[in-house]
Amino acid sequence: MKFPALSTSKTLNFPANLMEKQKIPFQIFLRKISVQGKTNRSVKSVQALSKNNSGSISIATTVTQERDRVLDSSRNDKGWIHFVGIGGCGLSALAMFALKQGYEVSGSDIEWSSFMDGLQEAGALLHIGHSVENMQRNAASRLPDAIVVSSAIPQHNVEILCAKSAGVPVYKRDHWLGKLTQGYNLIAVSGSHGKSTTASMLAYVLDGMGDNLTAVVGAHVPQFSGGNIIFGDGWNFVLEADEYDGCFLGLSPYIAIVTNLDWEHVDIFQNEEAVKATFRKFLSRIRVGGHLILCGDSEGAYSLLTDGKQPIGSHNWSGLRSRPLEKCSDSYTITTYGTTSFNDWHASSIRPNLKGGCDYTLCHQGCSVVDISLQIPGVHNVLNSLAVIATVVTLFSDQSPINNTINCVSLHFNNFIGIKRRFEMIGTIYGCHIYDDYAHHPTEVSAVIQAARQRFPNKSLLVVFQPHTYSRLAALKDDFANALCDADQVVVTEVYAAREIDEQNVGGRELAATIIGPPSEYIPSLDDVVDKLAFQISEKPHRNIVVLTLGAGNITTVGPKLLNELRRRLQVNS
């Protein structure tokens, strides 16, 4: 679905500061809506749209004259941007960025999300439900200057139709991101998994090193004062680059990171080859003279370089080494990282540390460099940190000796505590530790279970898994079952449908029945899950157990509810 921006008489100006000290402005074109210019036909068409979309749920309060007066008195001349699907991790970050830039921001979504809390505090006007009224001010005489639409929003959404009928430019996220990052030294962090953690870790390290960067991440980062953004005025822009719906194809990165590649977003990509084809298009967007930082341990990611050759770590690696790796592309250099010595950067002697994370020895082209210590557990986070090291060294190779740069990066790794919903500790009561994680793909489920085993080698592991979307579960059910087999006990809930309806004839019950090994149970309701686990754990409160809630939906509510219920039953004060 493509929404062209209309020719207009007003512009949004974003600061751009890349490669040259003189800032070069660029513009996103907007339509100036004048009261006199709106005909009665336009107003009637908007009213008709509202009637014809009665299926859209809206509980937003009617816009009052007093609110309009306050908003109009406080707004500046930059313009008003409305975000449709503002509650999602991606669009919420862009909305916060627009607020930081001084724009008037509003947005809508079908339900409230934690990302919307910070937006509301920062001054955004938020609506629950999609409605024409969300986009109207001053008795419908004023409309937004532009709207930005999440990839999850269908084309027939009433707010999109309203904007188009009134001549308001409509931007999909890919086009908006392309404009937003134009003129920056863009570092785009892509991959099927690990994007948020890698982008956050990279931005945290660069910020700690004194680089006045900008960053936009699709997750809440406790160590970012802006929640999921850093708003600086330097040259570098770290962006979590999402492949969903081809969103990253509007970018032109100076450095592109590929953390891995799997068949993910099965509702968009028919198979893994379709994912690879989209990533190859993304790599073609790297600027001439730029850099590709790629995980050589990932068969899918490495295939982007070899077009069918075996991946790093296989017995056929010598075929790649016969050519200069850094000259694999005519237009950009390539650096690989991983856990095998065939990569440019690799980690050896990976071991758990007393902080609950990982230590390892960093090696460059086979030679030991320095010992690295992380607070966050799991081999997947070792790989994420290697991507950060390779990127920072690439950025500053002409400005500082490599050893100095790495020592500085290592210092900041010591203090990085991770991001929200990535092996996040909810709480502890007696012998029970409760953690929550966003894992919603078999690769992610395996990684977080491995991390839990590393941190708690002597504790029983109880996993509560909420499948996310019917299409993903139907395509990857056997892979999910294999990943969950590594737990000691598994509870599977009903599917969190998100944007889908059940057309797959597969659900949580079928997944639970497929798991071989640990006791597995299907409990559809999250409230029933809390009751079941609270009863089980309170019977033996001193038993050493880790409860791990996994999924990208509302499963995140289970951990806090379970902790509170256990405190009530065991009469423990919080």
Q: Number of helical segments?
A: 17
CATH fold group of the largest domain: UDP-N-acetylmuramoyl-L-alanine:D-glutamate ligase
Contiguous low-pLDDT stretches (5 residues minimum) are 1-74, 308-328
| CATH secondary-structure class of the largest domain | Alpha Beta
Q: What do we call the CATH homologous superfamily of the largest domain?
A: Mur-like, catalytic domain
Summarize it.
The chain contains 17 helices and 23 strands. By secondary structure, the protein is α/β, with parallel strands linked by helices. The chain has three domains: 80-172, NAD(P)-binding Rossmann-like Domain (Rossmann fold, 3-Layer(aba) Sandwich); 182-305 and 327-414, Mur-like, catalytic domain (UDP-N-acetylmuramoyl-L-alanine:D-glutamate ligase, 3-Layer(aba) Sandwich); 424-570, Mur ligase, C-terminal domain (Protein-Tyrosine Phosphatase, Chain A), CATH 3.90.190.20.
What can you see in these coordinates?
By secondary structure, the chain is an alpha/beta fold. The chain folds into three domains: 80-172, NAD(P)-binding Rossmann-like Domain (Rossmann fold, 3-Layer(aba) Sandwich); 182-305 and 327-414, UDP-N-acetylmuramoyl-L-alanine:D-glutamate ligase, CATH 3.40.1190; 424-570, Mur ligase, C-terminal domain (Protein-Tyrosine Phosphatase, Chain A, Alpha-Beta Complex), CATH 3.90.190.20. 34% of the residues lie in helices and 21% in strands. The protein contains 17 helices and 23 strands. It has helices at residues 40-52, 65-74, 89-100, 114-122, 158-166, 173-181, 195-208, 272-283, 299-306, 318-321, 379-396, 402-413, 442-455, 470-484, 508-514, 526-539, 558-570, and strands at residues 10-14, 26-30, 80-84, 104-109, 125-128, 146-149, 170-172, 185-190, 214-216, 229-230, 236-240, 255-258, 290-295, 332-338, 345-352, 358-364, 367-373, 424-429, 432-437, 460-465, 489-492, 520-522, 545-550. It has a ten-stranded mixed sheet, sandwiched between helices. β3 (80-84), α3 (89-100) and β4 form a beta-alpha-beta unit. The longest helix has 18 residues, at 379-396. The model is unreliable at 1-74 and 308-328 (pLDDT under 50). Its EC number is 6.3.2.8. Keywords: ATP-binding, Cytoplasm, Ligase, Nucleotide-binding.
